[in-house]
Design goal:
Layout lengths: L3 E9 L3 E8 L4 E8 L4 H15 L4 E9 L3 H8 L3 E2 L2 H12 L5 E5 L4 E7 L2 E8 L7 H10 L7 H5 L13 H13 L4 H19 L10 E4 L6 H11 L3 E2 L7 H17 L15 E7 L8 E7 L2 E6 L5 H6 L1
Parallel strand pairs: 1-4, 4-5, 6-9, 9-10
Antiparallel strand pairs: 1-2, 2-3, 6-7, 7-8, 11-12, 12-13
Helix pairs in contact: 3-9, 6-7, 7-8
Amino acid sequence: MPQSNVYLGIDVGSVTTKFALLNEADELVTSLYLRTDGQPIMSIQKGLRELSIALPKNTRIAGVATTGSARYLTGVLVNADLVKNEISCQAAAAVHFFPDATTVIEIGGQDSKIIIIRDGSVADMGMNTVCAAGTGSFLDQQAQRMNMPIEDFGREALKSTKPVQIAGRCAVFAETDMIHKQQIGHKRADIIKGLCQALARNYLNNIATGKEILPPVVFQGGVALNQGMVLAIEEALGLSVIVPPNPGITGAVGAALIIHEEFKLEDKTTSFNGFEIADAALSASSFECKECDSLCEISQVFCDDKVLARWGGQCNLWEEEGK
């Protein structure tokens, strides 16, 4: 049987780590969705081990791209062919699934984004990385506080008949308001639905202000799995939204799509170093460079106490040293 090529996208965020393998037809071959648990190196290694087992026989990884908040670290560990920002990857996935998409709402674990697409390209964008009140991690925290799985959060919201008003502009105020609503006897479903509505308002007021939101609107990211949030976004927009298959892995899918397209155009060979790194002794740290007044924070990753790479400076002093 002839060998077939697959393209790997890896999206490592603060809350989850995602892997997506696409074939030559850009169809999803396999995917992984793991918890990062504050240990991105361990989650990357775990994902690579699982992926090596799940990889179909007679296939080879022909290209690798990384994205997410830990994209540079991930790129170093797997020797990626491309490190790409999250906006580009989410947009690529949206247009792949829905070629007519004009607006992408993406809410992940640590941040949320809006991407305006015109004629298949990114025309505008907005991003929130400051407050947790519009992100999946805040929903996770509240689900834990209510002693219920986050997977049940959305279904519980749909049971609401009279959602309560929650102050959603700040994570601290929202949680305080939720506790108060519980103490005065409001139903759990009504509190959860009120929270979803507050997050939707917060998203539109903070991130989407001044953006021309036109249909079709695509909702991506792990929070799109929450049915309560889908309904809250639709109510706040006054528009229907489309949720792609596997919305939690769209960043990884987009990364795989981009590297596949680039390799088709330039006929490159992958630099992916294989799955051996999954079992290596890895560690990471950072330090402040004092070579000039910029005082850059330099990140570094080690394998068996040997420096694999350094990055993060305004100049390439430490990048060259790492090599």
